[in-house]
Amino acid sequence: MESKATYQKRIESQLTKWKTTIDALKTKIEQAEAAGRAKLHAQLDRLHDKRAGAEKLLEELSATSQDAWAEIKSGVEQSWNEVTRTAKQTMANVREAIEHPHREEEIRRIAYQVWLDEGCPHGRHLDHWFKAESIWREQQAKQAEKNRSPRVNPKRRTTTKTRPGKIATSGEDSPAKRRIDEP
Q1: Which of 97, 131, 144, 152 has the fewest CB atoms within 10 Å, counting from its CB?
Q2: Which DSSP category does 173 fall into?
Q3: Cβ distance 61 to 4 under 8 Å?
Q4: 54, 83 Cβ separation under 8 angstroms
Q5: Do the beta carbons of residue 12 and residue 58 sit within 8 Å?
């Protein structure tokens, strides 16, 4: 069983990491476009609230005796796991909003096109939105894959060695001709 002191140190370490991450996200938010900045600040405020909740949990833990710790450990761990899950999700949301500032507008356009393609049915806006999100994610994944793939230039020229005085061609698409024995 993990001791109270070990558990406290682990929580303190995680809180320190979160503080560093939150500070880095604040810096990135300041660099984001003005339109998305307010939304990002709201998400960051929620993240700050989660961190404050975790600090409160740590304070409560500090106030307990070792005997009481054994009795409340499962409740504390459950609360800590919930705070951790929510904080990680919020951090991911902030990162995504920074990386893709026009995400919602792009999804909105895709959802509108889906709605038109389906004949403008009423009452299915959530279905269209979720489908548009899925399409948007696929587009982002394809774009990321495209950016990662090495680019091959199919028009790369190669020179064929021939005997002196003969004409060599270069590349399939452009028959650049020159004499091999010419400088």
Answers
A1: 152
A2: S
A3: yes
A4: yes
A5: yes
pLDDT tens column, 151-171: 555 555 555 555 555 554 544
Helix/strand/coil percentages in the chain, nearest 5: 70, 5, 25
The last residue of a domain, from among 39, 70, 101: 101
Query: What are all long-range contacts of 73-77, with beta carbons under 8 Å and residues at least 24 apart?
Result: 73/1, 73/7, 76/7
Number of domains in the chain: 2
Q: Summarize pLDDT for 70-115 with one digit per residue, the tens.
A: 777 777 777 777 777 877 777 777 777 777 778 888 999 999 999 9
Residue 178 within a domain: no
Residue numbers of the domain that contains 134: 105-148
Determine whether 129 is exposed, middle or buried from the number of CB atoms within 10 Å of its CB (0-12, 13-18, 19+).
middle
CA within 13 Å, CB half, 172: 3
Whether the CB-CB separation of 91 and 21 falls below 8 Å is answered with yes
If asked whether residues 65 and 124 sit together in one domain, one would say: no
What is the Cα–Cα distance from 161 to 167, expressed in whole angstroms?
A: 9
Dist CA 64 CA 72 (whole Å): 9
Identify the weakest region by mean pLDDT among 42-46, 128-132, 141-145, 179-183.
179-183
Q: How far apart are CA 38 and CA 92, in angstroms?
A: 17
Q: Which residue has the tokens 């500070």?
A: 23
Cα 108 from Cα 112, distance rounded (Å): 6
